[in-house]
Amino acid sequence: MRRYFSIFVYLTLFLVKCDEIEDMCNFLDSKVQPNNFRLLSKSILPGKGNKVKGDAGKIGVIGGSVEYTGAPYFSAITSLKAGADLAYVVTTESAANVIKTYSPDLIVYPYLNSKYASKIRALLPKMDVIVIGPGLGREPETLHLISDIIEDCKNLGKPLVIDADGLYAISKNTTLIKNYPCPGVIMTPNLREANKLMTAVSRNDSNWYSYWGDCVAVLVKGEKDYFYTNMSTYSWIATGGGSERRAGGQGDILSGALGTFYHWALNTEICKNESQIQLAQSVAAYAAAKLTRLSNYKAYVLHGQSMLASDMINQIHPAFESTFSLVKDKNATLG
């Protein structure tokens, strides 16, 4: 009898949640409120039904160099800890063996060189979302290769997250992602990188991000996180969580979380309408920002000014539980 009661309670909660989500989908002509995003971000989590390896996401990270081996690691391991099933790292030969020593959970390919362009092209179809930029470096040959990879992704219709030196590549050739097809691109610059992008497109007005088209969105990271999209209804500002500490690697953590949430949001097809892709981008970015800010906060509480990005990695699970479970966390709120 107790079993049937539990099933009844579960189904009741599920139906209530579905009704609430349907109500949230009626905001298309007005500004989306933070509570809407909180509910919708929870709705994109994959269910616990019959799953096989890969269903929760196969995330690719393209980056890394002899100087920067930590960045692609932080991005890829976060995608896994956020809930993806597989994480691939495509990096240079000099960085590959080092990254492999960081974790046996990552699948690492030493192909980030123009001589392996065909091998990279063969790998792209197996990746659900591709993160480009962590630790990439700015060597001319690398930037040329990244341009070719982005073009291949465009032809395949792959959703992209572009961060770090990937953004530098975009600032040097803004047409690389101009009119990129849906499911699109989310760029994740910090304030300095955002200013460079704004200057590159010669747009100093309030909607400079519109230069790239309807399927390209921008998440500007900082003390507050700002999400910009051509669908102004889905733009938002996130506050709360976070800390004064700005250790290297925090942006890489966000990019990996975003890769996972982006895949989930696209698969959920929330609020089916003509702008559901833009909504998916917005909800995924909100979830990633919230998880990263809370991981930062929790790590800072423990370590203070000694906090490192690796300390944030250890807080992803408790931050995830606080953010997406039914238990409220007073420090998880974002405005």
Automatic annotation (TrEMBL):
Residues 36-323 form the YjeF C-terminal domain. Its EC number is 4.2.1.93. Keywords: ATP-binding, Lyase, NAD, NADP, Nucleotide-binding, Phosphoprotein, Signal. Its cofactor is Mg(2+). Coiled coil: none annotated. (6S)-NADPHX binds at residues 135, 190-196, 252. It is an enzyme of class 4 (lyase). CDD domains: YXKO-related. Residues 1-18 form the signal peptide. PROSITE patterns: YJEF_C_1, YJEF_C_3. This is ATP-dependent (S)-NAD(P)H-hydrate dehydratase. It comes from Mythimna separata (Oriental armyworm).
